Amino acid sequence: MADSRLTGPVRVVGVGLLGSSVGLGLRARGIDVILADASPTHLGIAVDYGAGRAPAEGDEPQLVVVCVPPDVTADVIAAELEAYPEAIVTDVASVKLRVLDELTARGADVSRYIGSHPLAGRERGGPMSGRADLFAGRPWVVAAHDGISYRRGGVVDDLILDLGATLVEMTPEQHDAAVALISHVPQVVSSLMARRLVDGAPSALNLAGQGVRDVTRVAASDPQLWVQILGANAAPVRDILTAYRDDLDRFIDALGDVDAPGARRRIAEELAGGNSGVGRLPGKHGVDRRFTPVVVMVDDRPGQLAQLFQDVGDIGVNIEDFRMEHSPGAPVGLAELAIVPEAVESLIEELSQRGWRIAG
Amino acid sequence: MADSRLTGPVRVVGVGLLGSSVGLGLRARGIDVILADASPTHLGIAVDYGAGRAPAEGDEPQLVVVCVPPDVTADVIAAELEAYPEAIVTDVASVKLRVLDELTARGADVSRYIGSHPLAGRERGGPMSGRADLFAGRPWVVAAHDGISYRRGGVVDDLILDLGATLVEMTPEQHDAAVALISHVPQVVSSLMARRLVDGAPSALNLAGQGVRDVTRVAASDPQLWVQILGANAAPVRDILTAYRDDLDRFIDALGDVDAPGARRRIAEELAGGNSGVGRLPGKHGVDRRFTPVVVMVDDRPGQLAQLFQDVGDIGVNIEDFRMEHSPGAPVGLAELAIVPEAVESLIEELSQRGWRIAG
Q1: Residue B130 sits in which domain range?
Q2: Is B122 helix (H, G, I), strand (E, B) or coil?
Q3: Interval B143-174: pLDDT, tens
């Protein structure tokens, strides 16, 4: 840890989801937060919401956190570096190299700028969507670069730790390649898949199950924001999409004559590669072999899930993850509880004794 | 409804997930179920599991349900049509035209065959994964064709309704085009995305959030099964994948020079097309505007979710959907409840009074 400590004031520029969440989180720790936004209306809402105070004459922020859309991030950082010559400036944009390059090109004092990116978000935006715990437990990348010493940037570390996030150090290049792979390319893949649904017959769409819903969920994201993100990280995204397209071409070729020698093997290899890839994702969600699903049938009415969770709690088993599955019009739903394997047998037995129908 | 009623016996060939579920569901309605499987071990397990009985001399099934892998479905149907000249035969394979064509080509008596396909499944296979309610509320396509009268095929309708599924009539061509769009192409898109993760740096994969997990979830599916499915439905899958590839090519081109005239507009249009497509998916999941999310912070320990659901039940609000979000190592999780918009305000107020921290 650096010897500079975050004492504030911290100036947060842009009070959307991320900015207001930074403000709320720092206010909860008693730090003086100064808010700024191009929209006086948004600024007023964020102040009323408790995310910080309006700027005042003579403010001398120790740290500035720029939380504006990617397209204007470099402009705002440059202005803040000039306006507050003693302050360290960071930003939370989801692309890092482009911002640093723009600042360097215009001769900004990057010895006081260190970019960062919290891997946190939610579907809603605006100051009212902010929450103090948005970053809790989430990775927050600090994009180190040669122009700033680790010691000088220490207040950014403090910011991240104060907000409960997990600090991850990367170069801007490493960061941009990483988010291209785990965020930007999946967004494109999902959007293009969802685009195919536009021409689908309603009778076809009515057959949709959880698979296509999962694949296309992020396709509901805001196109205007994503144009900025993809535009600012075009090269890494393009590289991965090109490799994806090459795989896709091979796949389409193999489907052209599935009885040709090697065609089925090629398809199987591509699919097996997908198995390997998804198996590399860490954490609780996705294909997680640390937990075992137990499926319980529940009636679709108030109190049923409450009773189930009450019973599971009474049995003393922790629910690691939970998913509800039910079809429109069906009188019952299926509650899938993910629990540690050791607890499966006793949980099933005890739930059954309490009258629950275990479906798997 | 046809005047032939399903009274049994029903012979189920293949006792994997689908076959054992058909058996369990029919047994629950008191119908005599005869099980058959190429594996005596599997057959024994399914019988012990209560999905039906072993075959006996002189069995005269009214209906045969073929639940074997796609590659051998036509062979097994042909054999069953010959062995039981009075029986109606159906199957549950996820591709319909290829099976019918193969049967016609070999001169099978398709006047007693009507293909079908339940849109139901789960990640686990084998007889022990079967459950009587697997088909409850799920669509089940009957692929009508010219060779069989609706009246004669009536027992298939009865089968579907007895198992609690929703009957959907389609031609084999309509069915295969529909599942190509809502199941087979999403599988390919997801697998190829997951394949890109194979080369990702561990530090990149550690940044993965819910988006990439959702996009790649189905990539964990069994390659051997999917080679058969995709091979049997190659033409419709190829058509959609080719259109997808054309969109992808345009996308990659636009990323090649995002500052070229029209490039950003093209990217935005592709993404907006994805918005439109995902918005067409019906039902509770995905982008569902009928319900509003309420996010509540919960400690990651036994009893917490129980208490939350208890409280929501006491307040008298029905939880339409539920999602748990938490990061490894984080002491709290975020429980996202989907509820009807009318109930949001009072739920938030009452939960807050009970001490819950509402995060959004």
Answers
A1: 10-170
A2: coil
A3: 989 888 767 778 999 999 999 999 999 999 99
Cα→Cα distances A122→A52, A106, A344, B295, Å: 21, 33, 32, 11
Nearest by CB to A281, from B208, B270, B301: name it.
B208
Chain A stretch 8-67, residues whose beta carbon is closer than 8 A to a beta carbon of chain B = none
CA distances from B84 to B42, B58, B103, B110 (A): 23, 10, 16, 13
| A315 domain residue, yes or no | yes
Verify that B24 and B142 share a domain, yes or no: yes
Number of structural domains in chain B: 3
Cα separation, A172 vs B86, in Å, equals 71
DSSP-assigned beta bridge partners for residue A337: A294, A322
Residue A3 included in any domain: no
Helix (H) / strand (E) containing A91: strand A88-91
Residues in CB range of A259: below 8 A, 6 or more apart: none
Closest CA to A196 of B280, B240, B236, B268: B240
Q: Per-residue pLDDT tens for A172-229?
A: 999 999 999 999 999 999 999 999 999 999 999 999 988 999 999 999 999 998 999 9
Say yes or no: ipTM exceeds 0.85: no
Residue of B21, B161, B173, B207 for testing the chain A interface, max A β-carbons within 10 Å: B207
CB contact (8 A) between residue B218 and residue A214:
yes
Query: Token pair for residue A179?
Result: 């988010």
- Quick one: average pLDDT of B182-192? 97
A305: in domain: yes
